[in-house]
């Protein structure tokens, strides 16, 4: 059992990392079971691995690191083995997993997809998986989302804790979103650790776009954030991270509201949807479309779905990803299945601005002629 890798009175940067980890574990009630750390060998993940191994050893958790070798650089295999040996010297269990990254699409997205798949395959049901993203990474995510014209959920960046439903029931944890990159680098220096320096994080010499320019995240890190800080005369990283936190609260509230307005399997009734605020209605439509298999959805798809609701005649049927179609049709009946639980907006009344309990009395009127949004997989 690994324990007390870190003294009870750690130096400055190590203290910042360990306190952040302890706080997240305690505040979220994370049990000391199977703890898996994604470790690339870079300063962020290396510092986190040592902090998790230390805390897990004290609490009785079974801690191990998963080192993913993407095979995208000639040096990656040697670097992964080097990282494993560093952890082994400190008696931290670690395993190197080699993955195949798809050649089509963006290399960053493909590498991320392969990495998360490897982490899932190397962690059991109920495991806690720790990821080493810092506040600096969060700030970059906010700006990247802004550059894509994204909504509140994307602009809220990465979530600190994400719990999967059964049967996997994993908990994904990013305990360092309140910690700066200089703290993880400083912790490695304080403990005498030599992290791997990934050239893909550099402006020059790393991965590049097809036109030869730097990858978006690298450009944001080395160009956009410094330029924004210089323009505003202050450190913008904590400001961007705070915006992400505020937007996360807003997006979560809207998602909760939307979940009360429609349950999977119920009809999507135009009259009910039309009375909802756009921010709530669009979330209901997105949820329904994704459950029908329409992934990935873009904002253009969601806007087209909304036109089916608010358009005078609903417009033509629309094609969605995954062989899914959506259209509007009329249906009449008394208390038809699925009509009981959807909120109703009375004609001529202002839509409610607060979430209400699912299945209000207004949703149970008999004998009405309903207009329905149908979203179905057709191929």
Fold and architecture overview:
This protein is an alpha/beta fold and 379 residues long. It has 2 domains: 12-232, Rossmann fold (3-Layer(aba) Sandwich), CATH 3.40.50.620; 265-377, no CATH class. The chain is built from 12 helices and 10 strands. Strands 3-2-1-4-6-5 form a 6-stranded mixed β-sheet, with helices on both faces. Residues 334-365 have low confidence and may be disordered. This is tRNA(Ile)-lysidine synthase. Pfam families: ATP_bind_3, TilS. Keywords: ATP-binding, Cytoplasm, Ligase, Nucleotide-binding, tRNA processing.
Care to count the β-strands?
A: 10
Mean of pLDDT: 89
User: Stretches where pLDDT falls below 50 for ≥5 residues?
Assistant: 334-365
Helical content, roughly? Answer: 40-55%
Q: Write down the domain tally.
A: 2
Strand numbers in spatial order across the main sheet: 3-2-1-4-6-5
CATH topology of the largest domain: Rossmann fold
H/I helix tally? 12
- Based on secondary structure, the structural category is alpha/beta
Order of helices and strands: HEHEHEHEHHEEHHHEHHHEEE
What's the CATH C level of the largest domain? Alpha Beta
Please compute the radius of gyration using only Cα atoms. Answer: 24 Å
Q: How much β-strand is present in the residues?
A: 5-15%
The CATH homologous superfamily of the largest domain is termed HUPs
Gap between N and C termini, in Å? 53 Å
Oligomer: single chain
What is the approximate shape? elongated
* Largest sheet entry: 6 strands, mixed
Examine the secondary-structure arrangement and name the CATH architecture of the largest domain. Answer: 3-Layer(aba) Sandwich
EC number: 6.3.4.19
Family: Belongs to the tRNA(Ile)-lysidine synthase family.
Enzyme class: ligase
GO molecular function, one term: ATP binding
